[in-house]
Amino acid sequence: xxxxxxxxxxxxxxxxxxxxxxxxxxxxxxxxxxxxxxxxxxxxxxxxxxxxxxxxxxxxxxxxxxxxxxxxxxxxxxxxxxxxxxxxxxxxxxxxxxxxxxxxxxxxxxxxxxxxxxxxxxxxxxxxxxxxxxxxxxxxxxxxxxxxxxxxxxxxxxxxxxxxxxxxxxxxxxxxxxxxxxxxxxxxxxxxxxxxxxxxxxxxxxxxxxxxxx
Length: 214
Description:
Blueprint: E1 7-9, H1 13-16, H2 20-30, E2 34-37, H3 44-61, E3 64-68, H4 71-77, E4 81-84, H5 91-98, E5 103-108, H6 111-118, E6 124-127, H7 144-154, E7 159-162, H8 170-175, E8 180-183, H9 202-213
Parallel strand pairs: 1-8, 2-3, 3-4, 4-5, 5-6, 6-7, 7-8
Helix pairs in contact: 2-3, 2-9, 3-4
């Protein structure tokens, strides 16, 4: 079974005013072991170039890189796996392309979706949003800690909680049953898309989460 670290940070260039490569470097320097590269706006070439650069960094650090949504980019870049949403390729379609040795995660937002994910070969299943989130234009309804607890009772598959989680929330989310917390916006509290001179303390935020989860 895939052993998932308690912290699962996710890159965001707009919130951070940094490149994916810069973000990953900072996350790794703070001790992150599992990172997701996420970019809904990049072209296929931009995302592939970023993924290849980040794969080099995570390989050197002995860490794991997952690509959000794009199975083609995960395959071509040599990343460790892919994270799929409900509107992406199915887990089994991605598995057919990537093979048995790659990590595949899938997002779920209801108990029915979670149960369906249990029927697949997904290495981990994410549930959320646990709290209100600002990183999606049309977020799914908040599920709260209740779905985390209910989902954990149904399976020993690694469970990732996502959505509005801060370092203050994180221990309670783990206590509710999550094996890992996926984090985006809480890592970039000072990011401003209109101020290209302001960059958040990404390494410091990663360390704060790791300390809270220790």
